[in-house]
Specification:
single chain, Rossmann fold, binds fructose -6-phosphate, Glutamine Phosphoribosylpyrophosphate, subunit 1, domain 1, 3 domains, eight-stranded antiparallel sheet, alpha/beta
Length: 592
């Protein structure tokens, strides 16, 4: 949550450069944004509430700048609460991602010492703390980073901070928990919450480790142990993603782009995912107990994994939401395997759960998209989702990538790997057809028919149950229509009371052993006036609308995802919402 970006170098267009970086990071939070540059040894600042849009700040030329895009935690969405925050003298500009949990204790002595606070945030305390430490730190080339480390050591919570000293042309940063990446370019040095924001400048990056600090200047980029103050040699990595992968490339928005990237991605995974699936299958075989964790869509993929592993491979696993896993951890010990699912690799509930499981002796496997992310680095085995950057806040391609990898793993465990490779490739082809033929228009018509409704229910049984949960999540988070997914058998145990004439009900009815029972449930809601939207290989007279999907056996679960992605998308457009940045959400949930 929150995106941070900084630049110090040879180019005098720091404001423009920071704005471009912030646009790439906006998926992390879009309540407000701000940019600060140096001008005649003073900070010049522009902050605004709302999304960045086409804003072009009127800031002077400068070779040093930092910027922030906010997902509010402490203090309302106001310009005063937007970052960067300044020290009293207007020499330091500070940006922050995380929560300083002891900010009230830190603020009191600073107030007594005469520091003037201008916001309600936990962040501002850090700017004043560094100002204080700077006054007490011996003058020298490392003065800023020494003061920053000393302030950082007093912060409680998981934080990434970066502070520009425009008087000396340095940026110092430190982190514990929230992500921070340094970029090495010919034109200077950069930092960002996510390396995709750095790609237009460089693919040479350093992932700052927890408890490390950095000092950036035009000619130098140095890394320190923030606790001892000792300098450490930074590990420089060449990341694989190309800058083009982060651009819209002619699509109207990232959600459309990422939905359309699924066919090629699935065919790619069919070719390359087998090796990773093999390694994961070996770990599963060796484990005494297997747990799968994730949040949101990743949690739904975990639940789908439970069904696929049970039904295809006869393997029992325990699935939990990562945020609930700590309360179930008594059973985790040496011999256990925890498989963590996460697009960003930064979701704090996942990271915390993985660290706790590791302390108990469990091995960790991660299905993760973002290279170099915290989860990527923590895992004993990393299975890359290979989905490329996902910029829309909604998980689409990262969800189907997880399903594909789980399917490959389940078939590998069952000794039937070639079948899965064929299924995943065919799933890619089928989705390509769905996106190109008249089913897309049909889904647009369905959206048109239901976009004023208050509720939408989705039912599925067996492996389609997690897909029902995911379909409902896709619809509600982007259209704000209340949508709930249910196990087909559960609807009549209470929720059916909400069904009235015209209530839309999406029915996932694959040609498997769930078909008869799911259709029985569908008929019961139909009898109470529901409008049935069937997603099924088979037409049925009870369906008011029928979206035909192919019968691909266990891979039908993958095919059931895109119709709901498209439905959510069209509903969002019809209701006037931005599909890429739904209200209140952020893509990477790095705070508890
Ligand atoms: C839903 C969505 C979220 C994420 C969840 C976990 O469309 O995007 O529910 O799936 O926040 O995020 P990752 O996968 O990054 O751990």
């Amino acid at each position: 949550m929150c995106g941070i970006f900084g630049y110090v170098g040879r180019d005098e267009n720091a404001a423009d450069l920071v704005m471009r970086g912030l646009k790439k990071l906006e998926y992390r939070g879009y309540d407000s944004w701000g940019v600060a540059v140096g001008h005649r040894s003073r900070v010049v600042l522009e902050r605004r509430i709302g999304k960045i849009g086409d804003a072009a700040p009127d800031l002077p030329p400068s070779a040093i700048g930092i910027g922030h895009t906010r997902w509010a935690t402490h203090g309302g969405v106001t310009e005063d609460n937007a970052h960067p925050h300044l020290d009293c003298a207007g020499r330091l500009a500070l940006i922050h991602n995380g929560i300083v949990s002891n900010y009230r204790e830190l603020r009191e002595p600073l107030l007594r010492a005469g520091h003037r606070f201008r916001s309600e945030t936990d962040t501002e305390v850090v700017a004043h703390l560094i100002e204080d430490c700077l006054a007490a730190t011996p003058v020298g080339p490392q003065q800023l980073v020494r003061a920053t480390m000393s302030a950082f050591r007093r912060l409680h919570g998981l934080n990434a901070i970066a502070v520009a000293d425009v008087a000396t042309g340095h940026i110092a940063a430190a982190k514990s928990g929230s992500p921070l990446v340094l970029g090495w370019s010919e034109r200077g040095h950069l930092l960002a919450s996510d390396f995709s924001a750095l790609l237009e400048h460089t693919r040479r990056v350093t992932f700052v480790q927890d408890g490390q600090a950095a000092l950036l200047s035009r000619d130098d980029c140095r890394v320190f142990d923030a606790h001892t103050g000792d300098e450490v040699t930074p590990a420089v990595t060449e990341v694989e993603w190309e800058v083009a992968a982060t651009e819209l490339s002619g699509y109207p928005d990232y959600m459309t782009k990422e939905i359309h990237e699924q066919p090629a991605m699935l065919r790619r995974l069919a070719e390359t995912g087998g090796e990773h699936a093999h390694r994961l299958a070996v770990m599963i075989r060796e484990a005494a107990d297997v747990f799968i964790i994730g949040c949101g869509s990743a949690g739904h993929a975990g639940l789908a994994a439970q069904y696929l592993l049970a039904r295809v491979a006869g393997r029992r696993v325990t699935v939990a939401s990562a945020s609930e896993f700590p309360y179930l951890m008594d059973f985790v010990g040496a011999g256990a395997l925890v498989i963590a699912l996460s697009q960003s690799g930064e979701t704090i509930d996942v990271i915390d759960a993985v660290r706790a499981a590791r302390r108990r002796g469990a091995r960790i496997a991660a299905l993760v998209n973002v290279e170099g992310s915290t989860l990527w680095r923590l895992a004993d085995l990393t299975v890359p989702l290979s989905a490329g950057p996902e910029r829309c806040v909604l998980a689409t391609k990262s969800f189907t990538a997880k399903l594909a990898l789980v399917l490959l793993t389940a078939y590998e465990l069952a000794g039937r790997a070639p079948e899965a490779i064929d299924l995943v490739a065919r799933a890619g082809d089928e989705i390509e057809r769905l996106l190109a033929d008249d089913r897309r228009d049909l889904i647009r018509q369905i959206a048109d028919a239901i976009h004023t409704r208050e509720h939408l229910f989705v039912i599925g049984r067996g492996p389609s149950y997690p897909l029902a949960l995911e379909a409902a999540l896709k619809v509600k988070e982007v259209s704000y229509i209340h949508a709930e997914g249910f196990a087909g058998g559960d609807l009549k145990h209470g929720v059916i009371a909400l069904v009235e004439r015209g209530t839309p009900c999406l029915v996932l009815a694959p040609s498997d052993e769930t078909y008869d029972d799911i259709m029985a449930g569908a008929m019961q809601v139909k009898a109470r006036g529901a409008m049935l939207i069937g997603v099924s290989p088979t037409p049925h007279e009870a369906f008011d609308y029928h979206v035909p999907v192919a019968d691909l056996g266990a891979a039908t679960a993958i095919l059931n995802a895109p119709p709901a992605q498209l439905l959510g998308y069209y509903l969002a457009l019809l209701r006037g919402h931005d599909p890429d940045k739904p209200r209140n959400l952020a893509k990477s949930v790095t705070v508890k």
